[in-house]
UniProtKB/TrEMBL annotation:
This is Phosphoribosyltransferase family protein. Residues 10-167 form the Phosphoribosyltransferase domain. InterPro entries: PRTase-like, PRTase_dom. Gene3D superfamilies: 3.40.50.2020, PRTase-like. One of its GO terms (molecular function) is glycosyltransferase activity. Keywords: Glycosyltransferase, Transferase. It comes from the Bacteria. Pfam families: Pribosyltran.
């Protein structure tokens, strides 16, 4: 199965997949940081407004890279109940980590948006974009936040997705690649460098 050279190529491939739909006043929201370069290509192709939705992973105690949930700056956290049960964790035990990640989401939102007002979402078609879908925990929190603002139509769009994760979403998921053996998002890119804040701000400028 093919790979993407970088996030820009992945974004163009994703834009081509989305281009045959008639979008109503489309808004493309990238998940920082890695989703924003992909989202910029999509927004350019669809002649859509580009902005961000910041969701932060809530990591397991002692294993911050292992996401058990996620939160945005101003919404309730979304947890994976099966993972909480498997790790014998409660939401109360994670409340401090959740608060820290909520504050970080607020800080990053302010950094990326600057003095621009938040995008208008109501009655628009909204496409939430990331550079890949593994467990989908941060995407789920982002979609939950967008859904609260009454979009007309909401989709999650990614260049590459794990098949088993796609099936767990109520929101439609559009993916260019759905490999049988997913592994990790980085496997499907020749270059998968860390996206910097400067690159996010440049894309949004």
């Amino acid at each position: 199965m093919k790979r993407f050279a970088n996030r820009q190529e992945a974004g163009r491939a994703l834009a081509a997949r989305l281009a045959d739909h008639a979008w109503h006043d489309p808004l493309v929201l990238g998940l920082p940081r890695g989703g924003v370069p992909v989202a910029k290509e999509v927004a350019d192709q669809l002649d859509a407004e580009l902005d961000v939705v910041v969701a932060r992973k809530i990591g397991a105690p002692g294993h911050p890279e292992y996401g058990v949930g996620a939160v945005t700056a101003d919404s309730e956290p979304i947890y994976d109940p099966a993972v909480l049960r498997a790790l014998n964790l409660t939401e109360e035990q994670l409340s401090r980590t959740c608060d820290e990640e909520r504050q970080e989401a607020a800080r990053r939102t302010a950094l990326y948006r600057g003095d621009r007002p938040p995008p208008h979402i109501s009655d628009r078609d909204v496409i939430v974009v990331d550079d890949g879908l593994a467990t989908g925990v941060t995407a789920r929190a982002a979609l939950h936040w967008v859904a609260r603002h009454a979009p007309q139509h909401l989709v999650l769009a990614v260049p590459v997705a794990a098949r088993e994760s796609m099936t767990t979403f109520d929101t439609p998921v559009v993916a260019v690649l759905v490999p049988r053996n997913f592994g990790a998002v980085s496997r499907w890119y020749d270059r998968f460098d860390q996206t910097t804040d400067a690159e996010v701000l440049s894309a949004l400028a």
